[in-house]
Specification:
Layout lengths: L4 E9 L7 H18 L3 E9 L4 H10 L4 H12 L2 E9 L2 E2 L1 H8 L10 E8 L7 H12 L3 E2 L4 E4 L14 H26 L9 H11 L1
Parallel strand pairs: 1-2, 1-3, 3-5, 5-6, 5-7
Antiparallel strand pairs: 3-4
Helix pairs in contact: 1-6
């Protein structure tokens, strides 16, 4: 029987509202990644961090230099995961201050080499370049491995049909999730290969039957 492999996937959402289009995009990216991993016999253990829930802890960290309980737990979940999905709303043509502040309190080398899928939400398509001029440089500084496809969702994208010319939001989400899965699956394979194989347990009755045959 084939043992299914497992990877940890952390999702960071900087949405402020509830419900939030930023959280919705984050969830859909995570689901697309989970589905793509499942096709490779790999299960994704997804954990989501809403930055709005640790905003006060982030502010205190800047003034005290220490991360409180909830923030410390969130940082550990992000840094220990095999892969990361990071999604922010766009404010003033860039990522939100809350989004940047969270990654500022993480140790500079803690995310080095980690596969990351980037996403952003905004009111109009004009802000879509935030993915390239702001987010990719930030995660390049953190020395992560960002997937080729980053996903921006404007308000109109959620209901826009697939016209066969420009990729629709669902198509872009599926493609990005597949790219992240391609980076995560080898990690799962290596982890599974490093675990020692469990010895086969032969029932006692079967062992006795074998002895009788030899006699």
């Amino acid at each position: 029987m084939t043992t299914r492999k497992r990877v940890g996937l952390a999702v960071v959402s900087a949405g402020l509202g509830q419900p939030s289009s930023t959280r919705l995009l984050a969830d859909r990216l995570a689901e697309a990644t989970r589905v793509a991993l499942a096709d490779q016999d790999t299960d994704a253990e997804v954990t989501t961090l809403e930055l709005r829930d640790v905003a006060t802890g982030i502010a205190h960290n800047f003034t005290t230099g220490f991360a409180g309980g909830a923030l410390r737990d969130g940082i550990e979940r992000v840094t220990e995961a095999d892969g990361l999905i990071a999604v922010t709303p766009v404010f003033s043509a860039s990522y939100s201050g809350l989004f940047k502040s969270f990654f500022d309190v993480i140790e500079p080398d803690a995310l080095a080499g980690k596969p990351v899928l980037l996403g952003a939400t905004g009111g109009t398509p004009r802000h879509s370049l935030v993915l390239e001029h702001a987010m990719r440089p930030l995660f390049a500084y953190l020395r992560t491995v960002t997937v080729p496809t980053a996903v921006y969702a404007a308000t109109d994208d959620w209901a826009a049909p697939d016209d066969g010319v420009a990729p629709s939001l669902p198509r872009r989400i599926a493609r990005a999730g597949g790219e992240l899965a391609e980076l995560l699956a080898p990690r799962a394979t290596e982890e599974a290969a490093s675990r020692p194989e469990e010895p086969e347990v032969i029932p006692f009755e079967q062992q006795l039957a074998a002895l009788r045959v030899e006699e």
